[in-house]
Amino acid sequence: MFPDQEHVWWIVGAGKRVRHAITVRPGARPAGDPVQTLCDATIKLPHETWPATKEPSSRRITERCAECEQAVDEQLARDGDLVVTTWDA
Predict the structure, then answer these.
(1) Where do the domains of the chain lie?
(2) Paired residues of 42 in beta bridges
(3) Which residues make Cβ contacts (< 8 Å) with residue 42, sequence separation at least 6?
């Protein structure tokens, strides 16, 4: 589930209302690309907020997927150096 990954991002997929954890850096792939979450769901990377000075609407979303949260907690127990970041488009 975490092959050679040292970073996890909590992200709100396009059109979603819950944060999921992913190991793919959000900016590394184009907006709209599907990515696998730690709970094995597939979400689409969100589009960048425009204008850049506008606060992303996803920032208000704090609910997290329970399955992703458990996977992140288990990985943190094994690897205390894991970096966990909340990402908003």
Answers:
(1) 1-48+82-89
(2) 36
(3) 34, 35, 36
